[in-house]
Design goal:
The complex is a heterodimer of chains A (102) and B (191). Chain A has 102 residues and is an all-alpha fold. Chain A contains three helices and no strands. In chain A, α1 runs antiparallel to α2. Among the domains of chain B are: 79 residues, NADH-ubiquinone/plastoquinone oxidoreductase chain 6, subunit NuoJ (Four Helix Bundle (Hemerythrin (Met), subunit A)), CATH 1.20.120; 42 residues. The chains are: A mainly alpha (102), B mainly alpha (191). At the A-B interface, α1, α2 and α3 of A face α1, α2, α3, α4 and α5 of B.
Chain lengths: 102, 191
């Protein structure tokens, strides 16, 4: 359990999330992958706060803000998904959704 | 002992995350995401961050994932025609992009020598619950009062915005008023 191991773990999680965002075709599946990315970033914060920081309290507070912003993002994104689902013939498949293209 | 627990937790975390991005059924993906969040909370406990571990369980598992599961059950008819399988070019491109990203990060971690494993402040106390609470709400130079208030404002804005976006329009065409931007997102009424 060293800092390098934790950093490797968080970068693996980040790459898994990137893979999910790139390959999922459902909107909600992409949101799940974004959660994995944020999770990896939080592990990074915590690992640095535990192994390196002179002040671990600040490192423990920062993931709280990440969680709050992620909660706000999820609320808005799921509201948009529900609003899209109300349209006719909307399957929530990103290859069929052209409405937000502008 | 700590090392063994860390490797088991890391293995479980990677396995659960891989399941989340790879299984076809979204409900199963959300359930494995819950498992990966539990493994992350255990990892935070191992790294002596009790408050973050509890917040992880309460906010992520109790709030966000439950909200996601409700939305999945509301929107996706879990039949065979709504599964949207990944196509093979997608998997190939996504896999190559993320593997090359991982390789770059791994090479950077290897080449950029981290200083030896002595912490800068070896006597720093692990963050206790009391210290986190006082620090979060203290208004002096090292406190986090202003970001805390901004976050509360952001959450309120997101709450109102979510209600406005997901709201049904009462009479979209009868009133004859020009649509507000939220209505452009929600579109016409289907029923």
């Amino acid at each position: 359990m060293t800092l390098a191991n934790s950093l490797l773990l968080s970068s693996i999680l980040f790459c898994i999330g990137i893979y999910g965002v790139l390959t999922r075709r459902q909107l909600i599946g992409m949101l799940l992958s974004i959660e994995i990315i944020l999770n990896g970033a939080n592990i990074n914060f915590i690992a640095f706060a535990h192994f390196r920081a002179a002040d671990p309290t600040a490192g423990a507070i920062f993931p709280i803000f990440v969680m709050a912003i992620s909660a706000a993002e999820m609320a808005l994104a799921l509201a948009i998904i529900i609003a899209m689902h109300r349209q006719k013939n909307s399957k929530l498949d990103i290859q069929q959704l052209r409405r937000l293209n502008g | 002992m700590e090392n063994t627990i860390f490797y088991w937790l890391a293995g479980a975390l990677i396995l659960m995350s891989l399941l989340t991005v790879s299984v076809q059924n979204l409900l199963h993906a959300a359930i494995s995401l819950i498992g990966s969040f539990f493994a992350t909370a255990a990892l935070y406990l191992l790294l002596q961050m009790e408050f973050v571990a509890l917040a992880q369980i309460m906010i992520y598992i109790g709030g966000i994932v439950v909200f996601m599961v409700i939305t999945i059950l509301l929107t996706a008819q879990l039949g065979a025609k709504n599964l949207f399988p990944k196509t093979w070019p997608q998997r190939l491109w996504g896999g190559s992009v993320c593997l090359s990203l991982l390789a770059v990060m791994w090479l950077t971690l290897q080449s950029n020598d981290l200083p030896p494993a002595t912490p800068i402040a070896p006597t720093a106390e692990p963050a206790s619950l009391t210290a986190v609470g006082f620090r979060l709400l203290s208004a002096d130079g090292t406190g986090f009062l202003v970001p805390f208030e901004i976050i509360s404002l952001l959450l309120l804005t997101a709450l109102i915005g979510a209600v406005v976006v997901a709201r049904r329009d009462p009479k979209p065409a009868a009133a004859g008023v020009p649509p507000v931007p939220a209505d452009q997102v929600s579109g016409k009424e289907s029923s």
